[in-house]
Amino acid sequence: MSAGVKLTAMAATLVLAFGWGALHKPADFQPEYDQDNATLDALPPLPAWAMADLPDFTDYHDTAEKKAAFFSFLYPRIVLANTRVLMLRDNLEILERKPKLTGQEMAWLKRQAKRLRVDADIASPEMYEVLNRRLDVIPPSLIMAQAANESAWGTSRFATQGNNLFGQWCFTKGCGLVPRSRVEGATHEVAAFASPYESIRAYITNINRHDSYQALRNTREQAREKDRFPGGVALAQGLIGYSERGAAYVEEIQAMIRHNNLGYYDKEYKALIGSSNTLPELLRLATGDESAFTPGGIAKSEG
């Protein structure tokens, strides 16, 4: 059987098979993929490279080289996470067109609704509407800028010891690293992840489901309706509730995107995905080598 036929067959099988809040406060965490249940969320197993630890960015003494290495490491993992979101979105659209769903398909919808905090009747028009709004991608430029900002370019204690690029919190004892500045009586920890990919995936889930980022999702939806890819600068306006710094934080993230020309990665991602993103094509990306996500060049700083 050819590789293409295998991918198509796997895609068909998958179709049939079927915390973290504002100010970095997650309510819960749910695994994206359960190795003991190959049909969970209709996603294939993660490629081995996705679980690599964070490189030691303190080895870089040249700022430009450190930035290039940081972005080059993040980009494939962002593309992978977004690709898997698109696979779920594709399956959602398939189910929405079906006149009648199986019990397994209804259970899949229920899982997605729980994960993305959608309170609506299963398979109702309202559920499909909200899931379509929440099950979508985040532009690489926005993820990169926030990761750089929150993790000090991958050198913070929480990044190096817990693969945590965005400062996500957790509330179960032992779930992460205790902040040295934690006030007496507080119980939160900064979550530890198995890999930077898992941190990116948790960040995307948070942006897609938390009430604080409704404005961001609305802007993204409006862009999609106009057949446009939403850029990080535009979506950053919806991060007003992400930090206690409010508008100043938003402006800082936007400035980082512009100064580091991170819109370049948005264009590369858009070209990689293309106008067609059927499940077999997405599956090919989601199971490919890391090199398949390497952008065609290097973003040049504007400043």
TrEMBL record:
N-terminal signal peptide: 1-17
Q: What residues does the Mannosyl-glycoprotein endo-beta-N-acetylglucosamidase-like domain cover?
A: 129-262
Q: Which domain of life is it from?
A: Bacteria
Sorted alphabetically, the keyword list is: Signal
Note the Pfam families from the entry.
Glucosaminidase
Record protein name field:
Bax protein
